[in-house]
Design goal:
With 191 residues, the protein is mostly helical. Helices cover 61% and strands 3% of the residues.
Length: 191
């Protein structure tokens, strides 16, 4: 985990770009499916969004290349929007590693409006397992962050619990599941 101040800033940026996705019942369904170890698909997606933003920071600084951070976050949140338990073996999702980007993209296009970069992020995030390389820098970033997060989750290395807590807190505040008090100020949280 990074320091709480930068984690808080990242959580705010994730919410700023992906608020309308995160708050939907559809995206919240990802909490019901396990990704790696004990991490849900939703938590994985938030973690991938976090590391995608950190990678974007480095790329923007070192290469002076502009990254579409909004598409980056939105693609990261939806990159594994396949909505089934991939640990359960059946013919419907037999070759999960190869087929789930396509399934995630179809689900995401059904439920949300996506731009071309977001579609490319979802479709290509398993490269090089799926052979067609990403077309945009944002897709390369999510593809890389995804692999890092998968390793951490598999080996139970906690890299994102604080940011997941912040994103869930935003969600619960907006949904009225917790009431703003002296520690939480809804206006400030969501600005
Ligand atoms: Fe995936
Ligand atoms: Fe993933």
């Amino acid at each position: 985990m990074g320091d709480p101040v930068s984690e808080y800033k990242i959580a705010k940026e994730i919410f700023a770009h992906g608020r309308d996705l995160i708050l939907t019942d559809e995206a919240q369904r990802m909490k019901g499916f396990v990704q790696h170890g004990t991490t849900s698909v939703f938590e994985h997606a938030v973690s991938v969004a976090k590391f995608s933003l950190l990678l974007a920071d480095s790329i923007e600084t070192v290469f002076r290349k502009k990254v579409d951070r909004r598409s980056l976050v939105r693609g990261a949140i939806l990159h594994d929007y396949f909505l089934y338990d991939w640990h359960e073996k059946n013919e419907y999702h037999n070759l999960h590693g190869f087929t789930h980007p396509g399934r995630a993209l179809r689900n995401a296009q059904r439920d949300f409006d996506l731009n071309e970069i977001e579609k490319d992020i979802i479709r290509k995030h398993m490269f090089p397992l799926t052979l067609i390389p990403p077309r945009h820098i944002e897709s390369f970033i999510v593809c890389t962050a995804d692999k890092w997060c998968a390793i951490c989750e598999t080996f139970k290395i906690d890299v994102s619990s604080y940011i997941i807590y912040r994103v869930n807190l935003h969600h619960d505040l907006v949904r009225g599941r917790i009431t703003p008090g002296k520690h939480f100020h809804i206006g400030k949280e969501l600005r």
